[in-house]
């Protein structure tokens, strides 16, 4: 159960001064809180024996006021220090998770669904934070504070009465341990179900247009209802165990009260105890209620924190399958790019998505990559970006293998516009500045002009300050593609990859963008993958992929002389364009 503290030892060691101060202040405040009951008992005895004077009463009142003031001040300090540490831990863990997410490759995100990752970064981190805050409080109160109260009861009043009143404690410890094990198992299931529900909601929100288009609202509601019911039942299973803590504690505490009051009254009648001591003992017994409850709360919090920490650690311990080399080489400029016998298959597949790819790309060349759907075009680009491990053969930049280069350095040379454009829920300006943080409005307008977006910008209500909404929902597919192009253009990368990035624009717009590309990308390398072959006719070299192999290559004129797929596809598209 206490293993969660051991797992968090790295944090406690780093902030040992903060936690040492908080625990010492907490113990000091607890010790001060034990003095007033003793003073009250003393006062009652003075009244009983008719020895209380006005001077003594004034002194007693002054002592109590001083103790209460000290208790309040010290309690504020330990509360602020202890729970401030818990907030710091949550911040650290969330930062570690975010850094980890940014390092991960598509393999990781294929294993962990987005909703589950969100649950780990919210609910689970909150449970861990509670362990470092409320968990430490309950640990101290259920151990040190409880022992302090018992010591005061035993040493200053009566050990016989104290031991008799504490007889229910071993029973409580046994029951609480059983409850804790049950909570851990059920809480793990509840958190997993919450992650699944999170993911389902995220997919439904993102796909709301498709849901409406196919009139699937009722089916989605039913599916969501089943998932929420599952989450409800699993959380209710946790709550049922949680609900047993308080009644169990009340029964045991009530039993302690009964023993303390009954046996204590007997000792008073036998003149082994004063009436003031009995009152003080019962006040201490009342103070013992919270430490007893704290035992149950401690077990509850530690089991929840342990379950959540296990889930978060499982995520953080996932090793990136693409990492920086130990002795990374630096690249000052790019002269050429070469593929040498490159073959690749995705994890968990038993066939190659790319096979024996050989390609020489001189600096400044424009390369067209075409082929049927599923031919391997996107995979070809992902290998250049080192998104997957397990590649056979070599890809070299200026003679240096890309797996010998620093990942950030490699990707800084490349601008990538994928098939599915990602727009952030920010303004047009901020989305484009993602490609160049310090970009001025003048540079942004120029990039938008190159992407043929200026006319669209004039129609938007706030120009560059227009919010694009969640994932760019307020924009059309063509607008999102052109904004993504502008984001890549403003970066001015040495290698620009356009992965079917013109599919949602009309032929005229495509022609204008291609013209701008040819003018702006002189002496810089460009890769263009497209299903519409008119986008690559100007390319210096075109490769045709089929089942991961290069089956045709050459420039447009050379490929048109072959009686191959490229020629037939180009002629068919031209015919379809004429008919339209």
From TrEMBL:
Residues 337-572 form the ABC transporter domain. SUPFAM superfamilies: ABC transporter transmembrane region, P-loop containing nucleoside triphosphate hydrolases. The keyword S-adenosyl-L-methionine does not apply. The chain crosses the membrane at residues 21-40, 60-89, 134-155, 161-179, 251-269, 281-302. Keywords: ATP-binding, Cell membrane, Membrane, Nucleotide-binding, Transmembrane, Transmembrane helix, Transport. Coiled coil: none annotated. GO terms for cellular component: plasma membrane. Its main location: membrane. Residues 21-304 form the ABC transmembrane type-1 domain. One of its GO terms (molecular function) is ATP binding. It is found in: Cell membrane. Pfam families: ABC_membrane, ABC_tran. InterPro entries: AAA+_ATPase (IPR003593), ABC1_TM_dom (IPR011527), ABC1_TM_sf (IPR036640), ABC_transporter-like_ATP-bd (IPR003439), ABC_transporter-like_CS (IPR017871), P-loop_NTPase (IPR027417), Type_1_exporter (IPR039421). It is a multi-pass membrane protein. PANTHER family: ATP-BINDING CASSETTE SUB-FAMILY B MEMBER 10, MITOCHONDRIAL, ATP-DEPENDENT PERMEASE MDL1, MITOCHONDRIAL. This is Multidrug resistance ABC transporter ATP-binding/permease protein YheI. The lineage of its organism: Bacteria, Bacillati, Bacillota, Bacilli, Bacillales.
